[in-house]
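Hi U.,

Before I forget, here's the chain from the pilot set. I'm dumping it here mostly so it's searchable later in email.
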Amino acid sequence: WLRQAVLGIVERIGPQSGEGPSEKALAEIRYSMTARALGSDGEEVRVTLRASGHPGYRSTARMIVESGLALAFDEARLPAIHGAVTPATGVGLAVLERLREAEIDIAVEGESVATQRAAAAV
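Structure:
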């Protein structure tokens, strides 16, 4: 009974099917976000993602599709790994060019060896 009560409340106050931002509003959104990491030696690395389109409605779908295309068609550029992995380690840098073409840019700033390798691979 509790589950039914909660579902009834959600159905009354939540968005209905077909509700949401207009196509124009989705297309006009631009955003960026930056993640900053500090190593134990004090070295700082920043990753900035900039994209056009709504982050939930557009960018997430673009990232999923481009990652799938990279897995399907860019096998030679994929990391040599095995087992269960996260999307970042499974697809690696192979997806960066595809994301840029889909209006999603990821920039890495910092002086670490990993950053230098990533920049050289792109």
